[in-house]
Each structure stands twice: as C-alpha cells, then as structure tokens.
Design a protein that fits this description.
The chain is an alpha/beta fold and about 325 residues long. It contains 13 helices and eight strands.
Length: about 325
C-alpha cells in the first residue's frame, strides 16, 4: 500500500522552502547563552501546499473509516458496511499483531478481481520489469481467485524475511514505515468499488497484491524498503522525512527502470493501474528523466492524479546505493 495522503497540516501564507542540496546548508544560529548551534526547521511544501515540518514526524492516525469526497463508494451503503467490517477486523489484527486475517471474499469482490487481474496481467507481461515478473510467477498469483495475504506472507518471509502486516486502510507515512523498518509491509484487504474497477483513489487489495507484494521477493528491493523504513521512522526533522518520502514515491511507488536498453515499469502505483501503465511509458504529457537523487527529493507531486513526472533508475542496486548515501548524509 502507499502511505496516506493528507496527513500534513497546511499553513497559510508561508513561502516554499526546498530541501537544501549538499554543501548549501545555511549557517547555524545561536541565541542567548546557548553554546550549541540551534537548528531551525525550514518550511516545507507537499502536494503544492505549505506544511508544518513537525506533521511529517508526528502524523495523525485515522481510527474510523473515512472515504474522501468523490470516492465511487459514497452512497453505496452495502459497500460502506463491508468496508467498515474489514476496517475493524484488519485494524484489530494490526494493533494486536495477529497477521493478515483470512477473508471470505464476496461474489462481487471476486468478480472485480477477475475483471481487473487479467487486464493487468496482459500489461505486466509487456511492460513490467523482469524483477516483478519473476516474483509474481513464484508467488503463483492467479487471475481467478483472490489470494489470502496470510499465505503470501509466509512465502515472502521464507524468501527475504519480509512479512505482510494487515492494514485497515492507508496509514500515515511515519507509521507505515515504522512497520517496514521492522521488515513488515502494511497491506490492505478490501477491494475497490465495482463501478470503477480500473480505478481506486486509495490503496486496495489489487494495488497491494498485484503491485507491492511480488517485488518483496527480491532481496535488493526488500533491503531498499527496509532502509527507507528505518531511516524514516527514526528521522527527527521533517525535511528528512519528506525527502525519504519523495525518494520512495518516485521509485517504489511510481518508478521506471532500465532493462536491456528498454524502459520498464517498476513502481507499484503504476503496476496496479491499467491506465497508468501505458500512460507512464508512452504519453507525451509525461516528463521522464534519469533518477538523480537531489532532483527527486526536491520534486513535489500530486497523488490524486495520473503522474506526469517520472524518473528512470538504471537498476535496483543503483537505487540501493543512492539511498544508502542519502541516509548517511542525513546522519540516520
């Protein structure tokens, strides 16, 4: 799943401050009798809105189901009741560390899976990275039946020592990566609304199972995730958390990767969308450029729309080296 959007606190009338590049840090200030330099938190911008840096470090967590305005499930009482049922069940399993519950999926949920899964599979074969395709094949995820995440978790744990954590919905970024730092990946178990099976405004079972879970079988991918998790969950400065969040967004969520001279889809947000896959690779509206860390961590994005600015990494080991260097720079 991708972390929740909107956990940041808007502040009106404040100017944007971008993350400083190496060697361009401002001078430390001292006040009064203080002998040690005091570090001021710069104001940050996320999703085009100025935010309080502290909101990146101590985000709010939802305790009840909330569907955003415009959600296709609004007004469908049966769908909302089902979501509330799964919200409560998965939240209890997460907080009590019980592992993913076994879910008896409904006929409608199975219909949606069978509608979306073959379409994604066809696109994956053509456009997904080989790392993803190999892992998906090893997990034996089928087009007919919704897999039980408890069973997938056991298989992933045997391979890379990662495991799946049940999530009631999108979690705040900091909490999301606290689990990842402990080698647990939060995953949802609800299915998107049937009126728009090709689209979901929030991470659902299709996004997680057909996007995030297969790459967890790859050791480099697992180590990149774990390092982001450890760094983001221990960072005490908001701009560090935001930089790590952007690094993750433009690689793990919406990344492209080079393979044998071709550009392939790597990010889970792209892999789980029948519209986003061709758009990311072929649309003239998308800016694609090489993955340069200092550019990536200074690039804002809008998670509510198709992504029109993407970065291409040369390899997974490259991303791992870049992240290790970034974490050392932050002193984490």
């Amino acid at each position: 799943m991708r972390p929740i959007i909107g956990e940041s606190t808007p502040l009106n009338g404040r100017a944007t401050v971008r993350y400083l590049q190496p060697g361009r840090e401002g001078k430390a200030r001292t006040t009064g009798n203080a002998r040690r330099p005091m570090r001021e938190e710069p104001m940050l911008t996320e999703y085009g809105v100025p935010i309080d840096p502290q909101s990146m470090v101590t985000p709010m967590e939802a305790t009840a189901l909330e569907l955003e305005p415009g959600h296709p499930g609004l007004g469908d009482e049966e769908y909302i009741a089902r979501r509330r049922e799964l919200f409560a069940l998965c939240r209890r399993h997460r907080l009590e560390r019980l592992g993913p519950p076994i879910i008896e999926y409904t006929a409608e949920e199975t219909r949606i899976w069978r509608d979306v899964s073959p379409k994604l599979d066809e696109l994956h074969i053509k456009h997904a990275s080989q790392t993803y395709l190999n892992a998906k094949r090893e997990l034996a995820i089928t087009q007919r039946e919704i897999p039980q995440l408890r069973h997938l978790s056991r298989r992933v744990e045997r391979e890379t020592n990662m495991h799946l954590v049940p999530a009631e919905g999108a979690l705040p970024y900091r909490i999301f990566y606290e689990y990842i730092g402990q080698r647990g990946f939060p995953v949802t178990q609800f299915i998107r609304h049937g009126s728009h099976p090709e689209f979901t405004p929030e991470p659902d079972m299709i996004h997680d199972c057909l996007g995030h879970v297969p790459p967890l079988m790859n050791h480099d991918y697992a180590e990149v995730l774990t390092l982001i998790g450890k760094a983001a969950s221990t960072a005490t400065h908001g701009e560090h958390v935001l930089a790590l969040k952007r690094f993750s967004w433009f690689s793990i969520e919406f990344g492209l990767i080079e393979e044998h001279g071709d550009t392939k889809v790597f990010g889970s947000g792209i892999l789980s969308s029948t519209g986003e896959i061709p758009y990311s690779l072929f649309s003239s509206d998308v800016t694609r450029e090489p993955f340069v860390t200092d550019i990536v961590i200074n690039t804002d994005y809008d998670p509510s729309r198709m992504q029109d600015h993407l970065f291409i990494a040369p390899s997974l080991p490259f991303l791992r080296r870049e992240l290790e260097a970034l974490v050392r720079r932050f002193g984490l």
